[in-house]
Write a structure and sequence with these properties.
Rossmann fold; seven-stranded parallel sheet; about 40% helix; alpha/beta; globular
């Protein structure tokens, strides 16, 4: 009988991680490689450090420069599958951006860029890959990166909250339609993580203190805190998990 630990292995599979140049994306790409997957890493920034992480685990890395805010750039990524890039078996939709302003002052430009990056590009990439899997009767896994603001409203982040709330709903509808085809769709909702997106919050001593006071774990999360979650949801161990949003938040939602 195979060990239960073998169900967490990803040998023979190719993962795609967007927003993989640093932070959460780079950490998840490295974790998937350590579990045995080759990894397509996508971002508009420098991907060399992430490629080194993947290769240090003995896996192949395919870097691809793409800006999810640009439909033409995303089209180039979609067009590369089956040519410069292999078709992935696992998709981690991590890439995203955030803009902050009071709701009454929030610009349409900032609204459009965040919705395009955090929601529309996720829909387009997931749809293209899932369509291929269904046509070829292939199993596959899609993992969205949601947020605490998939559950809560927040302040000064209207477009981000709207996109991440919609992403929670997209996770469920995709799971409903794709589970019969052997495709798992789930999401990870990181808590307050020490990344570029939270730099302003961490620099504000009063706001940072308020946030830490609510986190039972008593600290900001680190990118490596997502490693176990992404490997689990990507692996055969999660074969019967569909439409779930896994909070990795230090207990924030429990409080």
């Amino acid at each position: 009988m195979a060990s239960v630990l073998d169900r967490f292995r990803l040998e023979g599979r190719t993962a795609l991680v967007t927003g993989a140049s640093r932070g959460l994306g780079a950490s998840m790409a490295g974790a998937l490689a350590q579990a045995g997957a080759d990894v397509i890493v996508v971002a508009r920034g420098d991907l060399s450090a992430t490629c080194r992480l993947v290769e240090a685990a003995g896996r192949k890395a395919w870097p691809f420069a793409a800006d999810q805010a640009s439909r033409a750039s995303l089209d180039r990524l979609l067009g590369a599958f089956g040519g410069a890039l292999p078709w992935p078996d696992i998709v981690v939709n991590n890439g995203g951006t955030i803009r902050r302003a009071a709701f009454t002052e929030f610009s349409l430009t900032d609204w459009d860029e965040v919705i395009e990056t955090n929601l529309t590009s996720v829909f387009r990439l997931s749809q293209r890959v899932a369509r291929r899997w269904v046509e070829e009767k292939r199993r596959g896994t899609i993992i969205h990166v949601a947020s605490m603001l998939s559950f809560q409203g927040g302040i000064r982040v209207a477009s981000y909250t709207a996109a991440k709330s919609a992403l929670a709903g997209l996770t469920r509808i995709m799971a409903n339609e794709l589970a019969p085809h052997g495709i798992n769709v789930n999401a990870i909702a990181p808590g307050y993580m020490a990344t570029d997106n939270t730099a302003q919050l961490r620099a504000d001593a009063a706001r940072s203190e308020q946030i830490l006071a609510r986190i039972p774990a008593g600290r900001w999360g680190e990118p490596d805190d997502l490693a176990g979650a992404v490997v689990f949801l990507a692996s055969p161990a999660a074969a019967y998990v569909h439409g779930h949003i896994l909070a990795v938040d230090g207990g924030w939602l429990a409080r």
